[in-house]
Amino acid sequence: MSVQTSSHPAPRPDWVWHAGLVAFVAIWWLVYRQLIPFSELITSLFPVERHSHTGEAIAFFFYDVPKVMMLLTLIVFAMGVVRSYFSPERTRALLAGKREGVGNVMAAGLGVMTPFCSCSAVPLFIGLVSAGVPLGVTFSFLIAAPMVNEVALALLFGLVGWQVAATYAAFGLVIAIIAGWVIGKLHLEGWLQDWVRDIHSGATAPDAADDAPLTLVDRYRLGIEAVREIFGRVWMWIILGIGMGALIHGYVPQDLMARIMGADAWWSVPAAVVIGIPMYTNAAGVIPIVEALLGKGAALGTVLAFMMSVIALSLPEMIILKQVLTLRLIAVFVGVVGSGILAVGYLFNFLF
Predict the structure, then answer these.
(1) How far apart are CA 73 and CA 76, in angstroms?
(2) How far apart are CA 267 and CA 108, in angstroms?
(3) What sign does the dihedral 330-336-337-339 (CA atoms) show?
(4) C-alpha separations of 39 from 35, 56, 97, 160, 250 in Å
(5) How far apart are alpha carbons 63 and 122 in whole angstroms?
(6) pLDDT confidence band for 44 (50 / 70 / 90)
(7) Which of 179, 166, 172, 169 is closest to 138 using CA atoms?
(8) pLDDT-based confidence at 34, cuts 50/70/90?
(9) How far out from the chain centre does Cα 257 lie?
(10) Distances in Å between the alpha carbon of 118 and those of 21, 83, 246?
(11) What are phi and psi of 253, to 5 degrees?
(12) How far apart are CA 142 and CA 240, in angstroms?
């Protein structure tokens, strides 16, 4: 009688995963420290003067592409692990039954900790409504989830420093909390699409059964899967955004940028918001542009307003929201959030 053996390889011991993660972080750090010499080496291969406009643009591009990719890999992996602790079901359970005010603060905080983009936040928005969460509270989550996300904060920290990243996070949360509270006080549940309003007025969503607890290695696997998924969606926009940033860095005169997006141009903040809304990109694509604009002398408030409008009020998100909200409610959403973004832009231009 022959003994059959399994064709599947034996699973790796947990210690192999832990050791591999430590080795990956060490190699990541060593490579990250060599990005400037690498960009200089690549630039030297081109038949251009290093300090010419073209040379500056090339160096910017070949420094920022690997830098943004590496930052994105590390942060998305870490937040993929965090995501495993905050499933949509758990998020609904945490917010269900919460009143406005406290609920707005909790929803905005969960929006930061649960790394949902605007596209994936909309289905969760429906789930929150179906669970009986107040409309204003759900809007605080819907605003914070894409705008104050792990990609935006990590890349801001890596590219322009912790002060700008902390500023962006603080005022993004304030906008999400206040905008959600204002929308809640307007009592606009009747402006939901009919099928969503029927869900809201009907029975609440059933409690989700607890899944089997995940091991730390399971969470590592989820982090790797998050890297694969997000890279597949954003790598093209990263390259396009860095390409635009390289052109700004290399060719746009600093004096011109300061006149267009400087603090003295009162119209620059609303113009930046209007320009940002129709752009089809995300935090990974827009932050290299932000870096280049700041480097050319653009005002911090104007640049932050531009970034917030791209991420929180993008046209693709409005198209998705049309499946859930009526045009009147979308207009209120854009008006309230846009007003908050304008206030942040003017405030920072005044302070800095």
Answers:
(1) 5
(2) 30
(3) positive
(4) 6, 11, 53, 19, 15
(5) 35
(6) very high
(7) 179
(8) very high
(9) 25
(10) 30, 15, 27
(11) -60, 140
(12) 26
Tokens of 345: 């832009």
3-state secondary structure the chain: CCCCCCCCCCCCCHHHHHHHHHHHHHHHHHHHCCHHHHHHHHHHCCCCCCCCHHHHHHHHHHHHHHHHHHHHHHHHHHHHHHHCCCCHHHHHHHHCCCCCCHHHHHHHHHHHHCCCCHHHHHHHHHHHHHCCCCHHHHHHHHHHHHHCCHHHHHHHHHHHCHHHHHHHHHHHHHHHHHHHHHHHHCCCHHHECHHHHHHHHCCCCCCCCCCCCCCHHHHHHHHHHHHHHHHHHHHHHHHHHHHHHHHHHHHCCHHHHHHHHCCCCCCHHHHHHHHHCCCCCCHHHHHHHHHHHHHCCCCHHHHHHHHHHHHHCCHHHHHHHCCCECHHHHHHHHHHHHHHHHHHHHHHHHHC
Query: What is the C-alpha to C-alpha distance for residues 32 and 275, in angstroms, rounded to an integer?
Result: 33
| CB 340 within 8 Å of CB 179 | yes
pLDDT digits (tens, 9 = 90+) for 219-250: 888 888 878 876 776 677 778 777 877 887 77
Name 192's bridge partners.
325
pLDDT, tens digit, for every residue of 67-113? 878 877 887 788 678 767 766 666 666 676 666 778 888 888 877 76
Q: How far apart are CA 215 and CA 85, in angstroms?
A: 11
The owner of tokens 């590496």 is 70
The whole-angstrom distance between residue 272's C-alpha and the CA centroid of its chain comes to 18
pTM of the full structure:
0.63
Distance of CA 186 to the CA centre of its chain: 28
